[in-house]
Specification:
Blueprint lengths: L1 E3 L7 E4 L3 H5 L12 H6 L13 H14 L3 H14 L1 H10 L1 H8 L3 H7 L1 H4 L6 E4 L6 H6 L8 E5 L16 H14 L6 E7 L5 H4 L14 H18 L4 E4 L4 H11 L5 E3 H20 L9 E4 L3 H16 L4 H6 L1 E5 L2 E2 L9 H5 L5 H4 L11 H8 L3 E4 L9 H8 L6 E4 L11 H7 L5 E4 L6 E3 L2 E3 L2 E2 L6 H11 L6 H12 L19 H18 L8 H11 L7 E4 L6
Length: 571
């Protein structure tokens, strides 16, 4: 369809399609910005209004239209449609308004987009692999619009954000995630592929919705499900042997299991687990540096025991062990709370992850209970006296005033991270936490929150946003040619991000950098990831300068290139 010429690689692209087909191709379309000579050469005369727009004029027009939309879902539909029409303009627009538009392109608004997917559907994007088509996966992947796929994001739609099973609507997540790959790290959009594995849905409202676009069937479970995933992975390895595969928004009983099964067979990671773990670790590293402590000295309580908690605990242990502390001692500093209370060895039928982090049962035997409920979070806080409180429970308001005050009574700078998405699921509101701790708390949240005014201070609230980690991770893996992704690479990414924390230079600033700096930041993360991959023997060793150069070469910028008809003689 299109390829770069050898001379002036950056500037001239040979294009083989013309007319309406060219205008309908979102990768190549320039819309009203096609210059006069290209309009003649590619059969576009009369198909466009006569004025040749500059990209600045196009941006002004599209932003004006965006601002006319009256609610977030309408804004989401508008941006999705722009992406389907003209990718270059889409990325240029969102890049110029990144803090305003990332929450619309991804969390939290993408959740509403996924919930309404079958009702707001306009145009297909990516690849849908439905369980009844399980014998045709090779043919389906062969229909992908590009053969040069370097990064795939796949979901089965079973655990979309904190919203649960959204079936085929889950496609909004791989699409949105890959938009952030491009936006935040410059991964070329033509080298990315979103995939939705449709194994049915157990969501009654979707099954009874006459407009539902997915396979109307209960979710496939057990061996049938595992066989389907195995067939998918094997085919990906065959059709796209050098691609990185990211798992996204799988249910907690599948997420860790699939990661453990496949992480040694191909280049793969799970952002809900590992990306969340690394970005949380980065915030904790910055917060402990501010409080004059270190990660190995903290008593860390994680409320919620799903995929995010798995990743956070595993990354914490990897980082603490790197400080010279034994793994067993590192685990003993992490307290996991689920819906049944403290995870401890006396509880029956604990699964693998919970079993690994279960505290000895005798820990709870001498607790002083305020009430008569051993499941009480307040009692756990009063007895354990954590210095760090992390929420991944999707239980809004579970960090109550009593809980926060009980924690703050025992620590100078309580570190409190209510991380559940979207905003409606947050364990606490930052303004409350600041107030309840007398302004002492170090806070990061999963969703964006406005700065908090407290006394004479304005406290910026950092968003513990995975897009500070996974785009740079992917860029580092691709640029270094890493064969696998390991936890140590995520810890290296977390350390690189922590060093960029604005709070280390200004106490009122947030623990995380502003989104506006994410492209430069991703290159720093990518370098740390690539060097760690080399140290682990997963990538060919190079100099740091050479790796930096390779990273820079991989970065795609949203700008219009010159086109020449394929097959025309070079002048």
């Amino acid at each position: 369809m299109a390829h770069h010429t050898n001379q002036e690689v950056e500037d001239i692209v040979e294009v083989s399609i013309t007319g309406r087909a060219l205008l309908d191709d979102p990768v190549l379309n320039k819309g009203s910005a096609f210059p006069e000579d290209e309009r003649r050469e590619f059969g576009l005369l009369g198909l466009l209004p006569p004025h040749v727009s500059t990209v600045e004029e196009q941006l002004a027009r599209t932003y004006e239209n965006y601002k006319r939309k009256e609610d977030d879902v309408e804004r989401y539909i508008f941006l999705t449609s722009l992406q389907d029409r003209n990718e270059t303009l889409f990325y240029r627009l969102v890049q110029e308004h990144i803090a305003e538009m990332v929450p619309v392109v991804y969390t939290p608004v993408v959740g509403a987009g996924c919930q309404q997917y079958s009702h707001i559907y306009r145009k297909p994007r990516g690849i849908y692999i439905s369980y009844p088509d399980r014998d045709q996966i090779a043919q389906i992947l062969g229909n992908a619009p590009s053969r040069s796929v370097q990064a795939i994001v796949v979901s089965d739609g079973e655990r979309i954000l904190g919203l649960g099973d959204l079936g085929i609507g889950g496609m909004g997540i791989p699409v949105g995630k890959l938009s952030l790959y491009t936006l935040c790290a410059g991964i070329a959009p033509a080298t990315t592929l979103p995939i939705l594995l449709d194994t049915g849905t157990d969501n009654e409202s979707l099954l009874s919705d006459p407009l539902y676009l997915g396979w109307r069937h209960r979710r496939v479970r057990g061996q049938d499900y595992d066989d389907f995933i195995e067939a998918f992975v094997q085919t990906v390895m065959l059709v796209f042997p050098n691609a990185l595969l990211q798992w996204e928004d799988f249910a907690k009983n599948n997420a860790l299991r699939l990661l453990e099964r496949y992480q040694h067979r191909l280049c793969t990671f799970n952002d809900d687990i590992q990306g969340t773990g690394a970005v949380t670790l980065a915030g904790l590293l910055a917060a402990t540096a501010l409080s004059g402590s270190s990660i190995g000295q903290e008593r860390i309580m994680v409320v919620g025991a799903g995929s995010a908690a798995t990743g956070i605990c595993d990354q914490l242990v990897t980082a603490i062990v790197a400080e010279g502390i034994a793994e067993g001692d590192a685990i003993r500093n992490i307290w996991l709370i689920d819906s049944e209370g403290l995870v401890h060895s006396g509880r029956p039928q604990l699964s693998g992850f919970k079993l690994q982090y279960a505290q000895p049962a005798e820990q709870i035997s001498n607790w002083h209970l305020a009430g008569n409920d051993p499941k009480s979070l307040l009692d756990a806080v009063q007895n354990i006296r954590p210095t760090v409180l992390i929420g991944t429970s999707a239980q809004p308001g579970v960090f109550t005033r009593q809980v926060v005050e009980a924690m703050a009574a025992h620590v100078d700078r309580p570190i409190i991270f209510p991380l559940s998405n979207p905003t409606s699921k947050s364990e606490a509101v930052p303004a409350d936490v600041i107030s309840w701790t007398g302004g002492r708390a170090l806070i990061a949240t999963g969703s964006p929150f406005d700065p908090v005014h407290y006394g004479h201070r304005v406290i910026d609230i950092g968003q513990c946003n995975n897009c500070f980690i996974f785009p740079g991770m992917v860029l580092g893996v691709i640029a270094s040619g890493a064969l696998r992704v390991k936890n140590e690479m995520f810890v290296a990414a977390a350390r690189a991000l922590a060093e960029l924390s604005p709070a280390l230079r200004n106490p009122g600033s947030s623990l995380y950098p502003p989104l506006e700096s994410v492209r430069e930041l991703s290159q720093t993360v990518a370098l740390a990831v690539g060097l760690e991959a080399q140290r682990l023997g997963l990538a060919e060793p190079t100099s740091s300068a050479d790796l930096e150069r390779r990273i820079a070469e991989k970065i795609w910028s949203p700008r219009y290139l010159r086109y020449r008809r394929a097959g025309t003689p070079h002048s």
